[in-house]
From TrEMBL:
SUPFAM superfamilies: L domain-like. PANTHER family: GENE 29133-RELATED (PTHR18849:SF4), LEUCINE RICH REPEAT PROTEIN (PTHR18849). It comes from Chloropsis hardwickii. Keywords: Leucine-rich repeat, Repeat. This is TILB protein. It comes from the Eukaryota.
Length: 223
């Protein structure tokens, strides 16, 4: 037996009538769009389709105002299950509107490239468990202070110096291939002099040891 809410399971909150909930009032909304009409037909779930009617420009503008992403300061868009290209595009459409967001979680969304996105006020960004392979694929985040990139596929530290001119204080790169690079911590801290914490560990004296001391350690290791 189908639950009374079954016919609404693929609808966004904007498509449900008679409520005044706005986007900046939701901390963990599901923004992934539902399957296409063709996909629902093959799933034999066409009963979930909302009856379509022509949408006027006024209704489009009202929906945009209701989403109100521009005024979100803290938002969790993790675990969206972005299985189709049109869902990814809708996801990026929302990201482009987050001009005031300060804390943003995008965990486990199979993201590969957000380089065209700019988050001018974002201070804390969590993109753990995605498919980034380079720092160049991250969004523009000039005010970033805390950045978490655990469990991606970042191979090298190339491009990390782009964050030198940001107020970045804490960086997490655990379970990325670059973590196994020789002198990993020293290279990160030399590229980011203002960084205070790497992978949850505060900056240590050996993380900024002078070249001759590092050379001496290497010689001792070889002997």
């Amino acid at each position: 037996f189908k639950l009374p809410s079954d016919s609404f399971k693929y609808l966004g909150w904007c498509d449900i009538e008679e409520h005044g909930v706005r986007g900046n009032q939701l901390l963990c909304p599901r923004v992934r769009e539902g399957p296409s009409e063709e996909e629902l037909f093959f799933r034999k779930e066409e009963h979930t389709l909302k009856k379509r009617k022509p949408v006027t420009d006024t209704e489009k503008w009202e929906k945009r105002l209701q989403e109100n992403w521009e005024n979100c300061a803290e938002l969790n868009l993790s675990f969206q299950d972005l299985g189709d290209l049109y869902q990814v595009e809708n996801f990026k459409r929302i990201l482009r509107r987050l001009i005031r967001v300060e804390k943003l979680w995008l965990v486990d969304n199979s993201l590969t490239d957000l380089s065209a996105i700019r988050l001018p006020r974002c201070r804390e960004l969590n993109v753990n468990k995605n498919h980034f392979t380079s720092f160049k694929q991250l969004p523009k985040i000039p005010q970033i202070q805390h950045l978490s990139l655990a469990e991606n596929n970042i191979m090298t530290l190339s491009g990390i110096s782009d964050f030198r001119h940001t107020p970045l204080e804490s960086l997490i790169l655990r379970r990325n291939p670059c973590e196994f690079q020789e002198r990993y911590r020293q290279l990160v801290f030399s590229s980011l002099p203002n960084l205070k914490i790497l992978d949850g560990i505060p900056k240590l004296p050996e993380d900024c040891s002078p070249p001759e001391v590092r050379f001496f350690y290497r010689m001792c290791t070889i002997l």
